[in-house]
Fold this sequence. Notes:
Layout: H1 6-33, H2 36-58, H3 64-68, H4 72-95, H5 97-118, H6 130-148
Helix pairs in contact: 1-2, 1-4, 1-5, 2-4, 4-5, 5-6
Amino acid sequence: MPAPVWWLLCLPFVAGAFLPLQAGINGQLAKNVSSVLAAAFISFFVGTMALLLLVLVQREVPTLAALKTLTWWHWSGGLLGAFFITTAAFAGPRIGAMLFMALVLAGQLGMALALDHFGWAGFREAPISAFKIAGLVLILAGVFLIRRG
């Protein structure tokens, strides 16, 4: 496989950097509207409007025929996003950005290990190795150290 272009490596880094910022913003939003769920709704509404605008501008509106081919799990991504946003707005301000993100990273890497190993959700199969497990253990050790600090 050829090496990815530099910007393809930068995008996930920047997206990851935005996660603790998003959690903090949504936590403050929840405080100001006195509701974690309302804050998550506002966050998703703003994101939905931004994506709707982009879809319309790019003329990438899916056809009804394409929508009819989707299965239940194709629709679950939005639910998973809602769970994350709500959890971030609730837990992030209570446990701090560093611990929150370390736990998010540990959860992401644990799931990524399974997704790659089994080739689930469209990922290419990449078997679990001792190095991958060691990396995950080091992340978990980091969670422990951050919690102690």
